[in-house]
Amino acid sequence: MNGAPATATLDVVPGLVPPSGRTDAQRRLGDVIVELGFADREAVEAAIQEAKTSGVRIGQALVAKETVDSGQLARALAERNGLPFADLNEFDVDHGAANLISAVQARRYRAVPIAFLDEGTLLTATPDPANLMALDDIAMATGYDVRLAVASPEHVEALIGQLSRLSESV
Question: Which pTM was predicted?
């Protein structure tokens, strides 16, 4: 399993935003959000302080305080990790890829294959780029190498819901 995408094949796909190329997992999420123009430094720092005092993850605090929405958070996580961001409202999901795992598996993994990058590689969307165990499980279940794209939790859940409805209707 390889989490880094072949960005040459992803540069002009509608609904898929490749990373800028400035990858550094040590970059603070708040810095990336400010750099992307999603919020100002003061609002980000206030959310970070709230996260520290309440014990929640910084991303959760940023969304809870409405500093960013979940799509912006997903975009910032993708950028921070050097991964493409998949806007599943715009991206044309390949249902052949998506149906390689069941809706139950997708829900458990919080990840869904969304495209074939080549004969042996699946592009898989997840809201959690740190969930490497799920990507390994998808690779083992499908027999494909798995490349990661980050999507908002709502978009991933909506896609899983579509898969669930499709499998029930068959």
Answer: 0.85
Distance between CA atoms of residues 24 and 109, nearest Å: 25
Does 71 have pLDDT greater than 60? yes
Are the CB atoms for 18 and 11 separated by under 8 Å?
Answer: yes
Question: Phi/psi zone of residue 94: left (φ > 0), alpha (ψ -120 to 50 degrees), beta?
Answer: beta
Flag the least confident range among 23-27, 57-61, 91-95: 23-27
Identify whether the C-beta of residue 3 lies closer than 8 Å to the C-beta of residue 80: no
The Cα angle at residue 110 between residues 25 and 166, in degrees rounded to 5: 145
99 contacts: CB under 8 Å, gap ≥ 6: 163, 166, 167
pLDDT score recorded for residue 10: 53
Distance of alpha carbon 58 from alpha carbon 42, whole angstroms: 14
Instruction: Tell how strand 112-118 and strand 121-126 pair up.
Output: antiparallel
